[in-house]
Amino acid sequence: MSRVNESFAGIIMSRRDYREHDLLVKILTDSMGPLMFLVRGAKRSRSKLAAAVLPFSYGQYVGMLDPQRLSYLITVKELHQWDRIGADIDRNAYATYLLELVDHAFQEGQSIGAWYQQVERALALINAGRDPQVITNVLEVQLLGRFGVAPQWQHCVVCKRQQGPFDYSEAYGGLLCADHWELDPHRLHLGSKTVAYLQLFSTLNLQKVDQVNVRPLVKRNLRWALDKIYNDQVGLFLKSKHFIDSMNSWDQDLNGLLKK
Ligand SMILES: [Zn+2]
């Protein structure tokens, strides 16, 4: 059942050409999750909708929503842009990855509840210059549950002890306390700071966060741990993530050159 002229909050996720003057635009809607919209005439220079579907735009839209087929965008009532994401390669890369991850995490046509505000806030923080990797890591930890991996971050999986040191075990699906490390020789051998951030991120409400500072070494370890969990337990390999990885290796190459 399509819903006619429904007003909804939306975040532009991705877009591609469709016919000469039209675009297909994936929008994250608050009421029905990610939906594909046909946006007629969006490539015409005088189209009002052209600006409304630019990357990293969000606002209040009106459309005909159809979770089974194409939805149609009719007009925009209130439009904002995270313009500092588009202008920065680092922020752009992480925001693009975040949106691709969200697209895979939710089914078309189903309300995503409070997730909508969490995603919107994550993008607002990235736009405001907060560390894009760390903000992305927070959502990566929280979205694991959507991919059927719900690690136990609060206590040891075996004895329920709440006091660390802890390490993460993929085989046990959560934390192991030092008394139980011997159960899994393949535990990730994470440092206590890295584990503490993973625990913090798992329940962090971004609405209540303004600044997150994580030291570079811990950031590298967080990146490594989450890549390992996503590769081994989720099995998701996204193009936008591959881009971030190659961007990081350019940085290393460049630093290597500068040191010579
Ligand atoms: Zn234990």
From TrEMBL:
Function field: Involved in DNA repair and RecF pathway recombination.
GO-annotated biological processes: DNA recombination; double-strand break repair
Read off the NCBIfam families from this record.
Answer: reco
Q: Which UniProt keywords apply?
A: DNA damage, DNA recombination, DNA repair
Give the protein family. Answer: Belongs to the RecO family.
Q: Which InterPro entries match?
A: ARFGAP/RecO (IPR037278), DNA_rep/recomb_RecO_N (IPR022572), NA-bd_OB-fold (IPR012340), RecO (IPR003717), RecO_C (IPR042242)
The gene designation is: recO
Q: Which HAMAP family match?
A: RecO
Q: Name one GO cellular component term.
A: bacterial nucleoid
Q: DNA replication/recombination mediator RecO N-terminal domain location, by residue?
A: 7-75
Please identify the protein, giving its name as recorded. Answer: DNA repair protein RecO
Q: Which organism is it from?
A: Limosilactobacillus secaliphilus
